[in-house]
Amino acid sequence: MEKVIIFDTTLRDGEQAAGTSLNLAEKLEIARQLDKLGVDVIEAGFPASSIGDFEAVRLVAREVKRPTICALSLASIEGVDRAWEAVKEAEHPRIHVFLSASDIHLAHQLKKSRDEALKMSRETVARARTYVDDVEFSPMDASRADPAYLCQILEAVIEAGATTVNIPDTVGYATPQEFGNLIQGILDNVPDIGKAVLSVHCHDDLGLAVANSLEAVRVGARQVECTVNGIGERAGNASMEEIVMALKTRRDFFELRTNIDTTQIYRTSRLVSELTGFPVQPNKAIVGANAFRHQSGIHQDGVLKKSITYEIMDPKWVGIPASSLVLSKVSGRHAFKERLSELGYTLSEEDLNRAFQGFKELADKKKDITDRDIESLVAEELRTVTEIYHLDHVEVSCGDHNIPTATVRLIGPDGQSLADAALGTGPVDAVYKAINRIVGIPNKLTEFTVKSITEGIDAIGEVLIRIESDGVTYTGRGAATDIIVSSAKAYMNALNRLLAAKKGGSSARGTGS
Ligand code: KIV
Ligand code: ZN
Fold first, then answer.
1. Contact, 153 vs 193, CB < 8 A?
2. Rounded to the nearest whole angstrom, what is the distance from the C-alpha of residue 141 to the centroid of ligand 2?
3. Using alpha carbons only, what angle is made at residue 392 by residues 493 and 413, rounded to the nearest 5 degrees?
4. Which residue of 7, 353, 467, 501 has the lowest C-beta tally within 10 Å?
């Protein structure tokens, strides 16, 4: 069976989603998980766009050895040189060059003629080939370009040495039939198209990214560019898990395979959601909380009799823990460790001890500890590992006839205990003001959401916030059974990330594509 190459661009196009702010360690953690998942190519960033992206590509190239590591570059000689500088230590490096191909982009953005753009494309691909044998080229906005010109560019870049040619539906404009026809036209009209892998890269502005990608694959494309949970610029990219599971579940139709270990999908989805701060909607295909839940009596009856009646996939295929095991305060360290490993976590002894301590504290407040509680707990413990300021104590007084007042105590960078108090419009505002009095770093709160992890009055409340400082967004999360405490933890998490970025100077983001 022929294989479809899964090119994951979560760390590049996914990271371009508004409000994302992954730091270096988080990018590496995602890259490692993508490696476990079995993706063929990881697009790790756009090195010329920012120092942070450059460093991320370099780090992933050094550390993640099995997959191809790809660096994106605009079609400029300096950009290609910079991409190579970042990716050269990879075991399997790739440079991905892109340039606009539609008249709309050429006239209004690039202000270049078709001939000039074609020349730049050819020259920069040739430059990339002086560094590496694996070079990809993307004619941006291909779905709105003149197909004859598109074929001309593809012919030229293949001749210049491109080994993959990628057709982006940059603005998510195409319909499946049109996109399939475009791919067929390329296969029929580009001489030597067989010398390169034909790839597609679809955006989801009309909710058609997955449908367009699958139609392209049906017609003959053999690489799909996609992201975990479909995150990405604007409405996002084609969702990796939907593409992969469609190819697996409908193998009878597509007769194609991928390299993906599908049992890692759920874990990867959770990790990306956790680190980017983008929740997965409950009805999201494959990885949403309701994707395998049956509500109506008729459906439940059918599934109980034979799951195939209403389930086209076994939840185990995507690694959804089929656990009936619920931990509680009498569960020991061994059971906790076992459950963690079933959920896909391998923690160091030190992290395990911290997580177990957190588990015991939670079990004192909450009767049954579910898998979602454990995931939240581990994430909470890991978040505090690299803190500059640590929340030691928070206390509020509030009510309908009270002026909300908060007292907080933080442990500072040198281990000193720092306490302060403030009044606010509400308890969270008071807590944030008290923290600000100690940390003293100007920022603006741009988003605040609270949700409960599981059902029940004793559920963990998870707070997600975004703050902005000097035009850069920092995400923070916090989880606790008390939502004031979660709110304080989330704020500390965002502030610590801001402080770490300012210290390291590596978070400045340029203009992504
Ligand atoms: O959407 C797009 O066109 C891109 C290219 C850089 C491939 O992301
Ligand atoms: Zn894109």
1. no
2. 9
3. 65
4. 353
